[in-house]
Every structure is written in structure tokens, then in C-alpha cells.
User: Fold these one by one.
Assistant:
Number 1:
Amino acid sequence: MPFRLFSLIALLCLSAALHAQSEGPARFQIYGGYAFLSNSFNGVPGSRQPLNGWDAAVAFPSWHRVRFKVDVASYRGTNLGAPQHAVSIMGGVQYTWQFKRESVFVEGLGGDIGLNKNWGAGQAPGGTASFSTLAGGGLDSRLARHVAFRVSGGFQWSNFALIGPAPLLVPYRIAGLPTNFGRISTGLVWQF
């Protein structure tokens, strides 16, 4: 009888330890935090202002360390007397390596970015939508079982153009209008 009781206790303790060691990566990730964009969309040389905002993302269950990810970011600021109100919605993949409490990832995203109508210098009209891409990566450092702190960054590309006067309304680009941006984001990830 004592041998069977001891065996049962040992089996229960061993199974709990094996389960704790075999815990796989989180199925879903929800991220939210602060975002910084290196330049305003009308930021020609000599007049460049960074934009601040927020970033939110959802990453779906992984398959061989690859996750599908949807990212939404919004930036606000003013440059050359014009408001800059941008919202981007992108989707793509995230590839993750796990190292004990930390995870390192790289990502490639593509999608749409939209701006307010009067974003050009002196509130000149401009295009309100452009294709956008993001190539970057980051680090997740686990704070608790289901919560991690994330720092990420990358290079974002978009191709906005100004709009000519009525009645033609033809898109045009001026020299120095930016297409490449640096992006940094930091916040919390909930993994479940």
C-alpha cells in the first residue's frame, strides 16, 4: 500500500514537471504600445519633424515559428503648417526564435496607409492613401507568464504624392518628399 501511494505521488509530480517543460509558444499575441515615426510625410530636407502615436497588433498561432500578423498604427503631428494624421493597416508574417525568457523576431508586413487630405506644406492637398511596407524586428522580454515587454523597430516605406490644382487633380512629387521612414514601437504583449 505505501509503495502504491508513493508511486502515485511520484507520477503526479513528474507529470506536472514534464508539462511545465513542454509548454509551447503562446497561440495568440495581442500587442499595444507607443509608436514613433522618424519623419513627417511632407518633411522635405530642412523641415523634418517626427510623428508620435500608437501601435496595436494581433499575431495568430504559429506554424514552424511563423505567425500571421495584423498591425494597425496611427501617427499625429504637424510640419510646415500642416497637420499629419496617418493610420496604417498592414498584414504579413513574423518569424520568432525563443531564448528562455526572451523572444527575438523578424517581420515583413504590407498594406495600406492613409493620411488626411491637407497634409502638404501650407495645408496643400495630397493623396490620402498609399501602399506601405514594413521590414523590421524586435525583442519580447517576458515579465509574467502571459505578459511580455516588447521593443521593435524597422524601416517603413510609403509613396504619397501631392495633388495638383483643380480641375486636373494630377498627382505630383516634389524633390525630397520622403518615402522611407524609421519606425520604433514599445509596449506590452499579452500572450494566450
Note: Strands lie at 29-37, 51-59, 66-79, 82-99, 102-114, 129-142, 147-158, 162-163, 171-172, 180-191.
Number 2:
Amino acid sequence: MLKIENLSVQIKRKEILKSISFDFEQGKNYCILWKNGSWKSSLAMSISWNPKYEITNWDIKLDNTSIKDLTADERSKLWIFLTFQNIPEIPWVKLFEFLKSIYDVRQEKPTSFIGFKKIIEPLIEDLWIDKEFLRRDLNVGFSWGEKRKIEVLQIKLLNPKVIIFDEIDSWLDVNAVKQVSELLKQTNSENNTFIIITHLFDMLEWLPIEKVIILDKWKIKEVGDNNLMNKIKKEGF
């Protein structure tokens, strides 16, 4: 589904990723794991095309089609979804309006207010989110657990193919990690791919992981299965 070929990235002429190559298959879940400062999030930002990162060499293919020259919004329309490590609060933008806008941009024509309400309300009920949240400013005053629920809501609404979770377990307590993990299971299917970036293990206890990728010192150090993850959990980084 998603193929990365010889990805090299630098910031202010400092190389942070070097010749990264990997194939992410449809229907499988991956974990990119290592300690803080190993540029895991930089890989996610490069895939989604954050302009902060200067890509010096690469190709990225989605379903065998190169997307390396596409902008961030164009990649998003091709069903690549990135969650935020630090979720921004956006005053004056209602949650309903935001969700409707990101949904409509992928449709042939905009939905009506009533039409979108019929789409979003069942999804909110599935996630146990109060309907009153739709009237609130986007993420303003939300708890971290609530913010993560809104990200899961976006995934259910858009149904993207490749979903990159950048430290989604950040700021969550034990109960919230379990709850968000259970909600993510509802979105996980044979038609999408989860790429979970983390240096923790709490969420990995609840989500099925097929492959573990160790990213250290600018490159892929090792690839394995849950046995590799358990070894690191036991022995440390």
C-alpha cells in the first residue's frame, strides 16, 4: 500500500533520516519504536509533507503511484491521515463546521447541513461523544482523552487508507489509553494500515501489531514481530 524508497531528510542542513526504505502493506499494523530523539515523528511529518523537513532524496508510492510531488492536502485526499502529537486548539471554528469541511472536500459536491448531521451523529454515538461537542470550538477546553476521541471520529468519518499515529498515547492516563485503543479497534480493518509511532508500550498492549520497526540513529536498525517488542520492553532501549 505505502512504499518508501531511500528517504533522506535534513533540517537546517543537519541530516536526521538517512536512506529509509520500507513497505507498509494493506491490512497490517506497524509500530515504529525507540526512545525519544530518534526522529520517529520526523518520518511521519516527512510522509505527510511538513515543509519544515527538507527531503534530499526519496520516492513515496501509494498503491504503486508516486506521491512525492504532491502537497500535504493532496496527500490527505489520497487517504493518508496523520494524528497530532500535540493537538491544537482552534477557537472560533466549531467542531461541526470543521468535520463537515474535511468531509466535503473529498466529495463531488458539499453536503447540506441536515445531510451531514445524519452522517456525523451516528458516528458520535458509536464513540460515546456528547452531541453538544459539535457546537463547541475545535478542541478548546477538551481533555486529552476527548481530543483523541475527536481524532478517532475523524478517522471513522474519512475512512483513510494509511493512518499514522504520532505518539497518540501522549498525555493519556491508563484508563484513557485503554478506552482510545478500544475505539481504534473499531476503525482497524483489512482495508487500512496503522502505523503507530511511540516510545511507550501501554497502547501496544491493546492493539494488534504485525511488525515492529526500530528507528535509531537516522536509519532503520531492526525489524521484527512482537517478540522484538517484548524483548525491548523487558531489557530496555
Note: The longest helix spans residues 144-158.
